[in-house]
Specification:
Length: 555
């Protein structure tokens, strides 16, 4: 019962999240969060994947036991084939699949602390040598929930359904706007293009898909073992495993490109920002992480739900006066306090906007978003529409002025167009019902307040302080913390994407991430997709091409 058959169960993040919650509630979890033996690998068989008999060269680990549990089992693979849809046609890809490999020596739960590796060997009948190829490190975390690596490989589908129907609210209060633009990791989206990991294989890159513990992991005795910072500790340990196996694991370990969506996008950003930090050392020791570096080359982050301790302020700054779907406004007095806190926070960041905008403040941020991201996104969208459709769109959206080639609009009209989806506060909920409250639980408490503001409001105690362990844990989950410290171990290259209609967090979150990285001299490619919702990935092929550009790699 502990194993999931992803191929039949997974059809979207909502279902995935629900199942994960149900499983954590009813499946026999490990008796205690202590070392578990790795489950034996089972062959993958997703709809688009054919499993062939074990390849020549495959052997069981039992026949050649390695003294080092962290040595990559280079001879244990199966050969798979799959079809990848690109704009230049359909490609047949054969690849070696290494499945369910524990990446730490003392796993708390190997179902999560394991990874899959895919190494392309043939594309359209032509041999591919991926031994020096970039490594796409794709986490599939959603909702800060545990991401399983058991049960025959990673879920074939990540995130939300193509075209974006996610109804209702995810357990733990993580609802989401319907994604209009398809999904990273989804076949299709609106373009019919394959997902990033498949496109990467077709481009001749190595793909690593790690599992990770999450906020819903609970042992039989009730102990939680995946609360913050477990997920980032695990993903960093998986990166260490790759570096540790340099020269053994296929691919160029100097070219690790991390990617993730939403909570996974936040963790991907955190991987990109926290390279080389010693603040996680004690956690690495506990799980037997490889003694190796954990820096990465590039970080690709789709709609990252991050900067969590400032996310409530940012949400009120952007949506505070916008009605919820039922037409009601949140408590304006409380919203005002958070809006003021955002202004203070933004001033303290001392960021300059990209493209020479100058100092970013709460007062000029709306204009900054319009000119830097929103109007360009609207222009791309409108310019690409056939004339009749553009005319119809503009008729329905009279708040946009179109001069024949360029859109102009006010920030306030734009935000009303998007609409508010989350309550007040959006992340540190007064009743502890938000997923983020549960992320910051501890071994014995499922959900806690992680901001002074919400704790004091909820408790009525104007002097209350958050639990003493939380200050550091909040930092360990926030890429902005590491970037503001000087970004010494930061990835050099960043790919940031979100939809303009993603109301799961404030647009200032991704925009501040972009500006702070750019201010620290990093190369940032940040683009918003017009009218697209949570999880959109509308230029997946450009992303794969970008990896080729930043690495200079050609297969
Ligand atoms: C996710 C969505 C949210 O709205 C949130 O608060 C945290 C995570 C997600 O989709 O991963």
């Amino acid at each position: 019962m502990k194993k999931m058959n992803w191929n039949t169960l997974v059809s979207g993040l909502a279902l995935f999240t629900l199942l994960a919650t149900l499983l954590s509630a009813c499946a026999p979890a490990p008796a205690s969060p202590a070392a578990q033996p790795a489950s034996p690998a089972t062959p993958a068989a997703s709809a688009a994947v054919e499993t062939q008999p074990t390849a020549s060269g495959a052997e069981t680990p039992a026949e050649s036991p390695s003294a080092d549990p962290l040595r990559f089992p280079v001879d244990s693979f199966t050969v798979q084939t799959e079809t990848v849809t690109t704009t230049t046609g359909i490609k047949q890809v054969s690849y070696r699949l290494y499945q369910h490999i524990p990446y730490v020596a003392k796993p708390v739960d190997a179902d999560y602390q394991s990874l899959d590796v895919k190494v392309p060997i043939e594309v359209d009948g032509k041999a591919v040598d991926a031994s020096r190829a970039p490594i796409l490190f794709a986490n599939h975390v959603g909702g800060y929930m545990a991401s399983s690596n058991a049960g025959g490989g990673m879920p074939a589908l990540t995130g939300l359904p193509p075209g974006g129907v996610m109804t209702g609210t995810l357990p733990g209060g993580m609802g989401g706007a319907p994604p209009a633009g398809g999904m990273p990791g989804m076949p299709g989206g609106e373009s019919g293009i394959s997902r990033n990991t498949d496109l990467a294989l077709a481009a001749g890159y190595v793909v690593v898909e790690p599992g990770a513990r999450g906020r819903n992991n609970q042992a039989q005795d009730g102990t939680y073992y995946g609360k913050a910072p477990a997920a980032i500790v695990d993903l960093k340990a998986a990166v260490r495993y790759i570096h540790y196996n340099k020269g053994v694991i296929p691919g160029n370990t100097d070219w690790i490109i991390s990617t993730g969506v939403s909570a996974g996008g936040a963790l991907s950003a955190l991987l990109g920002a926290s390279g080389g930090s010693h603040l996680y050392d004690e956690y690495f020791k506990q799980i037997g992480a490889a003694e190796a570096e954990d820096t990465i080359f590039a970080s690709a982050d789709f709609c990252p739900i991050t900067d969590l301790e400032h996310a409530d302020m940012a949400y009120e700054w952007i949506f505070g006066t916008v009605p919820l779907k039922d037409g009601t406004l949140v408590d304006q007095a409380i919203s005002q306090q958070l809006q003021q806190a955002f202004a203070d926070y933004q001033a303290a960041l001392k960021l300059n906007g990209v493209n020479g905008f100058g100092a970013l403040t709460a007062d000029n941020y709306g204009q900054y978003l319009v000119q830097t991201y929103l109007a360009p996104a609207a222009n791309r969208y409108l310019q690409a529409l056939p004339e009749a459709e553009r005319t119809a769109y503009l008729a329905q959206n009279a708040w946009i002025t179109w001069d024949g080639s360029q859109a102009s609009f006010s920030f306030n009209d734009f935000i009303r167009h998007v609409g508010r989806t989350k309550g007040l506060p959006a992340f540190d909920a007064f009743d502890l019902s938000a997923g983020e409250n549960s992320l910051f639980g501890n071994e014995t408490t499922n959900a806690r307040h992680f901001t002074k503001f919400s704790l004091r409001q909820a408790s009525g105690d104007a002097n209350a302080e958050i639990d003493s362990d939380l200050g550091e844990k909040v930092n360990l989950m926030n890429p902005m913390y590491f970037i503001n410290q000087g970004c010494s171990g930061c990835a050099k290259y960043w790919w940031l994407r979100t939809g303009t209609s993603d109301a799961d967090t404030s647009l200032t979150v991704i925009s501040n991430l972009a500006a702070s990285l750019e201010n620290q001299g990093k190369q940032v490619n940040a683009v918003l997709y017009w009218d697209a919702g949570h999880g959109a990935d509308q230029d997946a092929e450009e992303f794969i091409a970008w990896i080729g550009q930043i690495t200079g790699y050609t297969p």
